[in-house]
Design a protein that fits this description.
Layout: H1 19-29, H2 32-45, E1 49-51, H3 80-85, H4 150-161, H5 164-174, H6 187-194, H7 198-208, H8 221-231, H9 237-244, H10 246-251, H11 254-261, H12 265-276, E2 298-303, E3 306-311, E4 319-321, H13 323-330, H14 336-373, H15 375-380, H16 390-397, H17 401-408, E5 412-415, E6 418-421, E7 429-430, E8 439-440, H18 441-453, H19 463-472, H20 479-488, H21 494-507
Parallel strand pairs: 2-5
Antiparallel strand pairs: 1-4, 2-3, 5-6, 7-8
Helix pairs in contact: 1-14, 4-5, 5-7, 6-7, 8-9, 9-11, 12-21, 14-16, 16-17, 19-20
Length: 508
């Protein structure tokens, strides 16, 4: 058979990913605070976007109340661009698509450039947010100077207590104090590096150890506790022996420790109570990272026999398209590139508003199904939490499982029972011992926690005992699973709890 080149025409169908659709999928995975940061960037780049209340010169993109109204019929194999031009971009769940994960490498919180500033919550559903600073005006506390760090606090005290060469030594020592307040420097190496006698370095350290907070500059836990005991005038020989044998206290060897201290039962209990009042990490009072409060993305409120589910729009600025500015620019003298740029800005602004609207609809749809599936939890508590998977929710709302996963990532739900991450409601199931309906792992954890909290200090429950008690309640669970759940909740073993309760009884 002869070989020769030729041209063939073939028809094929493929899914087209437009940049706008990629943007919409990314928005779906972001939390409200991350969306706020993203919108701030778009406001800087797009001159046609405005944030604030609608005025006579600005017009918001119309909400697609009836998606099928005034739309031309398109063939089934229409491309994505043709769908968008025909106004079909929000039909048939446009965000519900399964794509290669590499196309959305910055969906998560860890991939964002910076966390957005935190603002108050609300139940306003009228627009995308409460605007710049909200109704109560700017939060001037957020503009205050940051807290003084531990090193700055210590250097200020050293400046008033030391001078000359001693101040140089103190600066070197303070620079090697960690955030918990412990000195990580080797005094001999410090003396050699500064070319000063070792006793002079030790003398300066003794001065630093008198600074506030008490216990700072210690080289180990025992020295830190001893400094605080001396400050409280409680450092007697018995307390000194107790501090020198903290490892016995950690192991729960109380009878041996009491003999070493040479005190009776009452004095020993008083010493332990005093020891518990000391701070093992005094430096954390200064310059510690402030825990950021979680802002809920969804509010769930009971209304009659049903539930009200609303998006927290207070953290999102209301986006508007300044059409008067667009008309003013469009009627000017522009070259082809300028006109194309202006058209792109208008299309990008309209698409962003529609994408945010579709994002809210999708989140509400997923959250509504979660509330429906876990209604017993919202009414009766964690013991009634049912096993739930992403696939179950996806099949119920006729979306792809990846879409549900993006919706539930980095988002929190606020209800009468507290604040929960949406992922919290997806839990594995534990088969019932009597053949009944399976229960969630969170419900089993709640039972274990309640049993341990109610246990008799004189009769600590072992893991085997917990297994038997759970089976009596209808939970068919193995001992290793009980141990795994107990450790996940930060609860110690029966031996550790027995020692801890013994210490508490002596301290009381």
């Amino acid at each position: 058979m002869a070989l020769a080149p030729r041209l063939d025409l073939r028809q094929s169908q493929s899914l087209v990913m437009t940049p706008q659709l990629q943007q919409a999928i990314r928005l779906l995975a972001l939390s409200n605070l991350e969306i706020e940061a993203y919108i701030a960037e778009e406001l800087e780049k797009n001159p046609l976007l405005e944030a604030g209340d609608a005025g006579p010169e600005m017009e918001a993109a119309p909400a697609p109340a009836d998606p099928s109204e005034n739309r031309p019929d398109l063939p089934d194999n229409a491309s994505t661009d043709l769908l968008l031009e025909g106004g079909h971009g929000d039909t048939e769940n446009p965000l519900d698509v399964e794509y290669d994960s590499s196309a959305f490498s910055d969906d998560g919180t860890s991939d964002t450039a910076a966390a957005a500033a935190e603002r108050g919550g609300g139940l306003d559903m009228g627009d995308y947010g409460g605007g710049g600073f909200g109704e109560e005006g700017p939060d001037f506390d957020s503009f205050s100077a940051p807290d003084v760090s531990l090193h700055e606090h210590l250097l200020a005290q050293a400046g008033s207590a030391l001078t000359g060469q001693q101040m140089v030594i103190a600066t070197q020592l303070i620079g090697q104090i960690d955030e918990a307040g412990y000195l990580e420097a080797n005094l001999l190496e410090t003396a050699y590096r500064l070319n000063v006698p070792l006793n002079e370095v030790e003398g300066v350290l003794a001065v630093v150890q008198t600074f506030d907070p008490t216990g700072v500059g210690a080289r180990n836990l025992a020295e830190c506790i001893a400094l605080q005991a001396k400050e409280a005038d409680r450092y007697d020989p018995a307390m000194a022996r107790l501090i020198d044998n903290l490892e016995l206290l950690g192991r729960g060897a109380l009878p041996q420790l009491k003999r070493i201290c040479g005190v009776d039962e009452e004095d020993f209990a008083d010493m332990i109570r005093e020891l518990r009042s000391y701070d093992p990490k005094p430096g954390l009072k200064f310059g510690a990272d402030v825990s950021q409060a979680v802002v809920p993305d969804i509010f769930v409120v009971e209304r009659g026999d049903g539930w009200g589910i609303e998006i927290n729009s207070a953290t999102l600025p209301r986006l508007l398209v300044n059409r008067s500015y667009y008309v003013e620019l469009a009627h000017g003298q522009h070259d082809r590139n300028s006109k194309a740029w202006l058209a792109d800005c208008l299309a990008s602004a309209n698409w962003l508003i529609k994408a945010l609207d579709q994002r809210q609809r999708t989140i509400i749809k997923v959250a509504s199904e979660i509330v429906k599936q876990q209604e017993d939890f919202f009414r009766h508590g964690v013991a009634h939490l049912k096993p739930l998977t992403l696939r179950m929710v996806a099949e119920a709302i006729e979306m792809h499982e990846s879409t549900v996963s993006r919706v539930t990532s980095n988002k929190y739900l606020s209800c009468a029972r507290g604040l929960y991450e949406l992922k919290y409601f997806f839990t594995s199931g534990i088969q019932s011992s009597d053949g009944g309906e399976a229960v969630s792992a969170e419900a089993v954890k709640s039972q274990i926690k309640a049993m341990i909290a109610a246990e008799d200090p004189r009769k600590i429950l072992s893991d085997d005992t917990l297994v038997e008690m759970l089976r009596e309640k209808g939970f068919d669970i193995a001992r290793r699973t009980v141990a795994k759940y107990r450790e996940a909740m930060g609860i110690g073993s029966s031996v550790q709890r027995r020692r801890q309760k013994a210490l508490q009884n002596r301290a009381a």
